[in-house]
Amino acid sequence: MKKRLALSLALLMLAGILLSGCQPAAGSTAVLRFGTASLDGKFNPILVENVYDQYVVGMIFDGLITNEPDGSLSYRGLAKECKISDDHLTYTFKLKNAKFSNGEPVTAEDVKFTYETIANPKYDGPVGYICNNIVGYEDFHDGKATELTGVKAIDSKTVSFTITEPYVAEEITNLGIGILNKKYYAFTTWDEFKAKNAAPMGCGAFLFKDYDPAQACNLDINPNYYGKKPQLAGVSILIIPDATQISALMTGQVDIVNPAASKDNWDQMNADANVASAKRFVGNGYNFIGMDLSNPIFADKKVRQALLYGINIKQFIDTEWQGFAEQCLGPISPVSWAYPDASKLNNYAFDPTKANQMLDEAGWNQKDTDGIRMKDGKRLSFTWLAYNDVQWPLNLQALATEQWKAIGVEVKSEIMDFNTVMDRVYTKHDFGMFNQGWSLSIDPDPVGIFDKASDVEGGYNAMHYYNERAEEIFAAARQEYDSKKRAELYQEWAQIANEDLPYLFCAVREEIWGVSKKFSGFDKMGPYYNWVQCLDEVKAVS
Amino acid sequence: MRNYIIRRVLQMIPTFIFIVILVFFLNKAAPGGPVAGMMNPKMTAADKARLEHAMGLDQPAYKQFFNWAGEVVHGNLGYSTKYGKPVTSVVGDFIWNSFYLALFSLIISLLIGIPAGIISATKQYSLTDNSLTIFSLIGISMPSFFIGLLLIKFFAIDLKVGGQGLLPMFGMHSNELRNANFFVQFFDILRHMILPGIVLALQSTASFMRYTRSSMLEVIRQDYIRTARSKGLVEKVVIYRHALRNAIIPIITLLGFWIPGLFSGAVITESVFGWPGIGKVAVDAVYSRDYGLLMAITMIGCFLLLIGMLLSDIFYSVADPRIKYE
User: Fold this and answer.
1) CB of A498 within 8 A of CB of A538?
2) Of A496, B141, B184, B214, which has fewest CB within 10 angstroms of its CB?
3) Residue pLDDT, tens place only, B39-81
């Protein structure tokens, strides 16, 4: 009797466990579910770092301006219009009649508060640089002033920014950040400010509902949204491991995913047209091999060009990314308006004979006993610092080691984690060769990476690159207001870089996105326009 | 016994402090930092310097230690740079998830491993014994992500019940049920725990089985067992009442060392199943150089290990009356 009771209780429990998963069929409330591998939970537009957190921030917070799918400026944000002064130093924005999700109106004071918080000496987030150009930043940050004088709240719906140096891309680069409500985010201690990361409140199309760490974040529609209301009941961001994201999409547990671009993943997402389909587009970024140009080996342009001729980039791209990447020929992605005509760029097609010839011409024409070239008693040998957080650096390094050996170049490998490599390269300037990728912003201005002013410890010109004409272009293009002339300047820069090779440019990768057939409206997704920006047109299809 | 415990606890304190100091300075000595990972070309060297100053990272290491230690003594473990929340809050979010999963798999592995070990020992060299040995070897050798993905494929994708997989594919509970009542949520979590629990249990089941088997084999050979048999006792009583009681002693002492393991999370299993545990958080903290979080996790691990060792010794003396501490 006791045994039978125990057995039936056990069976009941088992049934309960297995059947509790059966849920009622999903109703007609269209909640879009996005699958990602991680969220940090820093849901604050001025503190956010993680790119997935940025999606959440993009849904909850709106900024003054935003951008169109082609990267051009758009006034679909909080600003109705912007008047720029003749000296290009003052930007005066008129705000729309917008409300935060708690019903409070969006005023110029809120805009000023947002930028003052970034300029606050206690601020420890990643976007401090957007205030660098604003008048009064240094004084406010150092405590010598009580307000950020460069940002003025002229009246409740008018705010002006005064910058110290004219910069044609100031708006799209620095003035689009999500706006914080002054009253809600007011703080006396910095810890108080950070505490609101868990309860964000903004004026965007969605409002924050709940966040279960490393599980899911749920957002509802903001009833007070000033713009076009999305035709969704809400959005859920689900944490799904990379390995199971596509399976989750194909079994209907998630509606949109962004797996790594590979033929396998692409085919899987296109396997059943009734369930989902995949999109692909070239991304706005590139991978490269970096070199210390102060090293006598790399200082010679001929050597750099020979190295690029000596490695079969096309073969690497085909093997590593199976058609989901193309060769990168300059520091600008082909999707950008600043990209020159491809015919003007050298594609350094694999040519070991030419590489050998160039290395001979460069003076590396003696050979050591093991076949490695020598010049003035020094071997053509260097250390390549790579990271193993992802796979491609190791594969590229292996291929290069083999193919460069054939032209008499020796590569010694040193492998560390990403953080250490970045520290060695940019903070300590202690490297010979390294590899990395850049994810670019909408504006192609390369100041920060290739200009002389960035050639300092901690700066991003760790290569010590300098080209006189390029410096002229950088300065001129930042103040060139004729878009056609500006494009020509950057196209010339791309050609200079293609010839000079401050980096050995490697590949521009594609992005692939899987979207469930249950939703439409993601057609505008592209390198400058993410899925969050598409949400005003996304709706469930019956 | 009481004096023994007090003495041990007093010994633990300087050990703990020493380990904390060592780990702190090791972390600071390692290259990189939270700012090195922020790769935005618009950030100038001056911006980075400002940021490091705001985070207190530009001070010499010993000063940073005293600042941090001063706060810790007042109960403030600092902020996580990665999650932007107090460290205690981050740990609290994840550590209990790891604990439940680890406890679940520990119970499974004890319930399966110990009986399997007993059977193996009583039927030594038989077909049963050999098959159990083979299974346990497979369990220990298979990499957890491989088994995990296989299980997911079979139970969550291929096997379907009402259009959905029999068991969930990822996560700790279903997002749709987040506002359901306690009963539904409890079973939902249990459902999600099955697959990762099995993966985790595979390794420990094998260990427990082997330990029990060898311990039992040793005990069965003893004279007092022969005496019990010759007294005419039923074999089951001989094995389970007399032999097992003595054989279980090493297992019990082992359990003390399991305690820190219950709270440290299992990185690979948690990553494969998307289980929100502390293992993945700890590894991520290393990669992003989140010093505050790293120190907190290390301190918890260290504390639990010391306690675990003490409990191990106490269990041993409780289980075996021949052992006495002064």
Assistant:
1) no
2) B141
3) 888 888 889 999 899 888 889 989 999 999 999 999 889 889 9
- pLDDT (tens digit, 9 = 90+) per residue, A299-308? 999 999 999 9
Pick from B45, B167, B274: CB nearest A459: B45
Instruction: For residues A420 and A537, give the distance between their C-alpha atoms in angstroms, rounded to a whole number.
Output: 42
- Condensed to tens digits (0 to 9), the pLDDT of residues B125-152 reads 889 889 988 988 888 888 988 999 999 9
B41 and chain A in contact, CB less than 8 A:
yes
| Chain A residues whose beta carbon lies within 8 Å of the beta carbon of residue B272 | 241, 243-244
Shortest distance between the Cα of B115 and any Cα of chain A, in A, equals 19
* DSSP-derived pairing of the beta strands A285-291 and A433-439: antiparallel
A507: tokens are 């590949």
Question: Which residues 303-342 on chain A approach chain B with CB closer than 8 angstroms?
Answer: none
Q: How many other C-beta atoms can be found within 10 angstroms of the C-beta atom of residue A271?
A: 12
Check: CB of residue A464 under 8 Å from CB of residue A455: yes
Closest CA in chain A for residue B91: A213
Q: How far is CA A109 from the centre of its chain?
A: 30
Token digits for A315?
């073969």
Outline where A44-176 has alpha helix (H).
51-60, 108-119, 137-141, 170-174
The most distant pair of C-alpha atoms in chain A lies apart, rounded to whole Å, by 95
Task: Please name the member of A33, A38, A194 whose beta carbon is closest to the beta carbon of B84.
Answer: A194
A46 touches chain B (CB under 8 A): no
Dihedral, A303, A304, A307, A308 alpha carbons, nearest 10: -140
Degrees to nearest 5, angle at CA B96 with B93 and B101 = 125
Per the CB < 8 A criterion, the answer to whether B196 and B273 are in contact is yes
Q: Is A452 on the interface with B (CB under 8 A)?
A: no
Phi, psi of A18 (to 5 degrees): -70, -40
Rounded to two decimals, the pTM is 0.91
Interface test with B, best of A12, A13, A14, A17 (most B CBs within 10 A): A17
Neighbouring residues of B74: CB distance < 8 A, sequence distance ≥ 6: none
Residue A536 neighbours by CB under 8 Å, 6+ apart: A205, A227, A228, A230
Chain B nearest-CA residue for A459: B45
Q: Which two tokens stand for residue B21?
A: 């100091």
Q: Nearest C-alpha of chain A: how many angstroms from B45?
A: 5
Copy the structure tokens of residue A74: 């758009």
Angle at Cα A185 formed by Cα A180 and Cα A191, nearest 5°? 125
Give the residue from B196, B22, B214, B18 showing the smallest Cα distance to B100. Answer: B196
Is B323 buried (19+), middle (13-18) or exposed (0-12) by CB count in 10 A? Answer: exposed
Contact state of B44 with A459 under an 8 Å Cβ cutoff: yes
Give the CA count within 13 Å in the CB-facing half-sphere of A507: 23
Chain A residues within an 8 Å CB radius of B51:
124-126, 128
A40 and B82 within 8 Å at the Cβ level: the answer is yes
Identify the pLDDT of residue A26. 42
Where would I find the H helices in chain B? 2-29, 45-54, 61-73, 87-122, 127-141, 144-151, 182-220, 223-230, 235-237, 244-264, 267-273, 278-287, 291-319
User: What digits encode the pLDDT tens for the residues A481-498?
Assistant: 999 999 999 999 999 999
Identify the CA nearest to A533 among candidates A82, A198, A106, A57: A57
Residues of A in contact with B287 (CB under 8 A): 389, 417-419
Q: Given A17, A33, A38, which is nearest B187 (Cβ)?
A: A17
Q: A287-313 burial by CB neighbour count: b if 16+ within 10 A, else e?
A: bbbbbbbebebbebeebbbbbbbbbbb
Residues of A in contact with B273 (CB under 8 A): 241
